[in-house]
């Protein structure tokens, strides 16, 4: 599956859907972002059941501000509408695959219980 461009207009609709959404906060001028882009694209092709979204921080500053993005690239993982991971830094293939495996393995009932506590 190709990546989806996320904007202030469609972010909530995509992020609140069931399943996993991975979001890459990036900018064209950012060297690490350009190095991470092919890793993210490759994972998008491999994991057709996951939505891979990209937020251009220059074009969508309100989303960067909303989520407190101060360093890019930042990878955010959302599962069933809950942000379960958000860390800056360009990940290599193996590290991104590890994040995906961990997000898949989450017990979302337990996550929601912990959020309520």
From TrEMBL:
InterPro entries: Thioredoxin, Thioredoxin-like_sf, Thioredoxin_CS, Thioredoxin_domain. Gene3D superfamilies: Glutaredoxin. Keywords: Disulfide bond, Electron transport, Redox-active center, Transport. Residues 1-105 form the Thioredoxin domain. Pfam families: Thioredoxin (PF00085). Transmembrane segments: none annotated. CDD domains: TRX_family (cd02947). SUPFAM superfamilies: Thioredoxin-like (SSF52833). Belongs to the thioredoxin family. NCBIfam families: thioredoxin (TIGR01068). This is Thioredoxin. It comes from Actinomadura keratinilytica.
